[in-house]
Specification:
Length: 143
Amino acid sequence: MNRIEAAVKAKRMTVFARIDHAAGAAGVGLPLRPTEVLVFGNATAGTPLMQSVQTIAIDLPLRALVWQDGSGQTWLGWNDPAWLAQRHGLGGETDPGQGDDLSARCGRQGRHHGITQAAARVAEKPTSLHLAEQSGGAGSGLR
């Protein structure tokens, strides 16, 4: 998770929260494998989307989930920004002040492009990626 957070900050996005669900579970005496959510975004990119279709606010700021499965492998999950744009009917609409495709600004070609190579992959539904595919090695927990 530290790598994801650093990449988000390097893209000059705001990290609003980092939620450690495993710590919360431990606090009430329940077991949970490492599970963290990073909440992040950028008002410059998100505000025009909400101005166009306010319902997208339910999915903003963006979130990334990092979790460890039962075999100890670490995974990254996210809702693809293009899927979010489609979900809220943003595909092909333009902002008269900007002249560009709002679904692109939602992520694939906008501020969120390049957070990780994984985030650039297009999906029709929420997405997950085994972090070993990203780093070239086996997942080893949330770092």
